[in-house]
Amino acid sequence: MCRMRTLVLSVNGDRLEVAAPDHWTLLEVLRYRLGLTGSKQGCDKGDCGACTVLLDGAPVLSCITVAALAEGRRITTIEGLMPLHVAAGGRGADPVQDAFDRCGALQCGFCQSGMMLSARALLDRSRDPSRDEIARALSGNLCRCTGYTQILEAVELVAAERAGRAPAPPHWQACRAAPGGAPGAAGSIGSAPGGGGGKGKG
Ligand code: FES
Ligand code: FES
């Protein structure tokens, strides 16, 4: 017979009390007690990264993290990314979410929440990461659909726009300009023939 436990968790800025079996993982509590289903249950054994959330700003695999270990820590899930951005003075979606959208950095979307949270953690600790740093930071997040190129470009786009750098070809060829126009871009960023915000390359 399993023992129940009352957890006190800080999730996306809210203090929540939740009762759950004491062996439950953080992913189980988020999805099946709190209804935060943006964190995906993929492999459920630490291999795919779909369940990634942030604990005190660092990515963790919530499917192999016992929920009790998250008490007293700041938990950020994909549901909190935009509200936390707005609470910090930003407008609209977090720039990572915006860039993933503009670059077509998703197809089925199953990996997306984990990817974006890993990217957010990287961009919070590194002002202007290189392509290699981005690839390393996202190496624990598997995507079966996109071929990764647009994902890497989306993260590069956030860093470039934050630095006020004009995106240049051959990068960001699939990325749409920000509303109001990114530097040097009318419809799409870069100089891809035909332009346009394409979907991933399969
Ligand atoms: S579901 Fe957690 S790593 Fe795959
Ligand atoms: S797994 Fe489908 S978009 Fe990444």
Please give a handful of descriptors for the protein shown:
alpha+beta, Ubiquitin-like (UB roll), 2 domains, 6 helices, 13% strand, binds FE2/S2 (inorganic) cluster
Low-confidence sequence ranges: 182-202
Order of helices and strands: EEHEEEHHHHH
Mean pLDDT over all positions: 87
| Percent range for β-strand residues | 5-15%
Main sheet summary: 5 strands, mixed
Q: State the end-to-end CA separation.
A: 46 Å
Look at the structure and give the CATH class of the largest domain: Alpha Beta
Describe this structure in words.
- It contains 6 helices and 5 strands.
- The chain has 202 residues and is of the alpha+beta class.
- Strands 2-1-5-3-4 form a 5-stranded mixed β-sheet.
- A hairpin with a 2-residue loop joins strand 3 and strand 4.
- The protein is globular and about 60 Å long.
- One FE2/S2 (inorganic) cluster is lined by residues 41-44, 46-51, 61, 63.
